[in-house]
Design brief:
Layout lengths: L7 E3 L1 H13 L4 H19 L5 E6 L3 H15 L3 E6 L8 H13 L2 E4 L9 E5 L13 H10 L4 E4 L21 E5 L2 E2 L7 H5 L1 E5 L5 H5 L5 E3 L22 E5 L6 H13 L4 E6 L4 H7 L4 E4 L7 H6 L2 E4 L7 H11 L4 E4 L2 H8 L8 E3 L3 H7 L4 H6 L1 H12 L2 E4 L4 E4 L5 E4 L11 H14 L4 H20 L10 H12 L5
Parallel strand pairs: 1-8, 2-3, 2-5, 3-4, 5-6, 6-7, 7-9, 10-19, 11-12, 11-14, 12-13, 14-15, 15-16, 16-17
Antiparallel strand pairs: 1-10, 17-18, 18-19
Helix pairs in contact: 2-3, 2-4, 3-4, 8-16, 12-13, 16-17, 17-18
Length: about 500
């Protein structure tokens, strides 16, 4: 699947500011509105070329103006068109009022929205756009519900109404679109939180915005794609295993030995020079049979771990670790070592209790539940503002934070934010987080900085899941390992 979307991600306020600067630089607002309508109409015709029937649900702002102009274009193309106005069209002002005039001049039928109004053909959501403040209220809520239960195709103008453009939170209710056409700048909320479930297919048009104006606005974050991903350097012909670091995975209490082994295997497949595993002695035989290249050590206490920790360049701590005395003691020892570390799973749960402090050179990889414990809040609050949550984690703990989930986010204490919009629902399977932790550890061992290692790892992980997910349900975490290796070679070839 070719990625044609831009990398820069903006807040709604930033996009409004860009829009204002474009107008100030000489592009009339109504011309921008016309360009948006043409872009949406082109996308609509490509998706549903034979529909011939269009119902536009229009609100009272500039988003409604886009909708009225789309209606005019469809009417002139010979389609059967109706606009259902949610609110009094006479209240429209400025460019939106001009758009209303265009629709009337084209002969578009404009009716007042009411519960039970007939919806036909392709539905165009031109209700709220980015202008919403607070929860969706009536009569918009009823109109959104009617669209969602209609079983008709829906195009959302700029973004689905009721979806927060900055966080991807649903503001009470939100349109579930089949196709969204976004303008000027991509909004962060399209890709995280509930955004991926509401946006459908996404088309972007910059409305011919002047590049110099766009460059004046520093984006809120960047999408991970080929142009923004870090790369591993090619390997020298004289390289040896010591050139690419030794990763030590610490975890795998009784009953959860597979989690630590998955992390160790992922570190091996992502190119770490040497990989060791410190786990319960009961797991050693199975680990050696499964992956003899991993140096597996059975440890009963910190006494057996000390020498292993001192030799390692990178520690991956937490997969299958548990919160019993065995896991607590191993984590306490790891926390004393000032070396690059990845903390995952129960290492994060123990960190949240205050039982241990995070060492200086660390990277954390929580899922929303672990993030909630780390920030002393609820999962619902984390999911309501995932960008804010990952930034809070990076700031509070002074480290790179990777918040897993749909639209995985990576934040650095220096303010950088990256988002991964790849992946597949088949990845909703146990063990994939353990694989990701090992991948990050391997990339750290090969010289990437924490933010870059997290960004590349999450993208490779998501792309591998995307490729394999097309085969359907039943994706096992270990299935990703070979695919990840192939993807890494495509992205960062071993040799020039």
């Amino acid at each position: 699947m070719t990625d044609t979307l831009p990398a820069a991600l903006f807040t709604a306020a930033q996009v409004r500011e860009i829009d204002a600067r474009l107008i100030a630089a000489g592009t009339p607002g109504f011309e921008l509105m016309q360009r948006a309508a043409h872009a949406a109409w082109r996308a609509l015709r490509r998706r549903w070329p034979e529909a011939g029937v269009l119902t536009v649900l229009a609100g009272r702002g500039n988003n409604a103006g886009d909708g009225y102009l789309i209606a005019a274009l469809a009417q002139r193309a010979g389609w059967q068109v109706r606009v259902l106005a949610v609110g009094d069209p006479q209240e429209l002002q400025g460019d939106a009022a001009l758009a209303l005039g265009e629709a009337r001049q084209a002969g578009v039928a404009i009716e007042a929205w009411h519960a039970g109004a007939l919806l036909q053909g392709v539905l165009v959501d031109a209700l709220l756009g980015t202008g919403i403040a607070g929860e969706v209220r009536e009569p918009y809520a009823s109109a959104i519900t009617a669209m969602n239960v209609s079983d008709l195709p829906v195009l959302a103008v700029d973004l689905p109404s009721g979806l927060c453009a900055d966080t991807g939170r649903i503001l009470g209710c939100a349109v579930r679109a089949d196709l969204s056409v976004s303008f000027i700048g991509l909004k962060l909320g399209l890709f995280t939180g509930e955004g991926p479930d509401r946006v459908g297919a996404l088309v972007f048009d910059d409305l011919q915005a002047a590049a110099e104006v766009l460059l004046q606005m520093h984006p809120e974050g960047l999408r991970l794609c080929e142009s923004t991903l870090p790369r591993l350097a090619p390997r020298s012909p004289t390289a040896h295993k010591g050139s690419f670091g030794q990763v030590l995975v610490i975890g795998g209490d009784l009953g959860t030995g597979g989690a630590a082994l998955l992390s160790a295997e992922a570190a091996l497949r992502c190119g770490a020079g040497m990989v060791s595993l410190a786990t319960r002695p009961q797991h050693v035989t199975a680990s050696l049979v499964r992956q003899p290249e991993i140096m597996c050590h059975g440890v009963e206490s910190t006494y057996g771990l000390t020498a292993l920790v001192e030799r390692a360049d990178v520690l991956v701590v937490g997969p299958g670790l548990g919160q019993a005395p065995w896991g607590r003691s191993l984590l306490s020892l790891a926390a004393q070592r000032q070396v690059s570390q990845v903390w995952d799973a129960d290492a994060l749960n123990l960190l949240a209790t205050g039982a241990v402090a995070l060492p200086g050179e660390c990277l954390i990889t929580p899922h929303p539940g672990e993030a909630a414990r780390l920030l002393k809040t609820s999962v619902a609050q984390i999911q309501a503002d995932r960008p804010g949550a990952v930034r809070a984690l990076a700031t509070r703990y002074g480290c790179t934070a990777l918040l897993k989930g749909a639209g995985t986010l990576v934040a650095s204490p220096d303010g950088r934010l990256a988002l991964c919009d790849r992946g597949h629902p088949a990845m909703a399977s146990a063990g994939l987080g353990d694989v990701l932790a090992g991948m990050v550890g391997a990339l750290l061992a090969q010289g990437l900085a924490p933010f870059e290692a997290a960004a590349l790892a999450v993208w490779l992980h998501a792309r591998a899941g995307e490729r394999l997910g097309r085969q359907g349900r039943g994706l096992a975490a270990s299935d990703l390992l070979v695919e990840i290796r192939l993807l890494l070679e495509e992205h960062s070839p071993c040799l020039n």
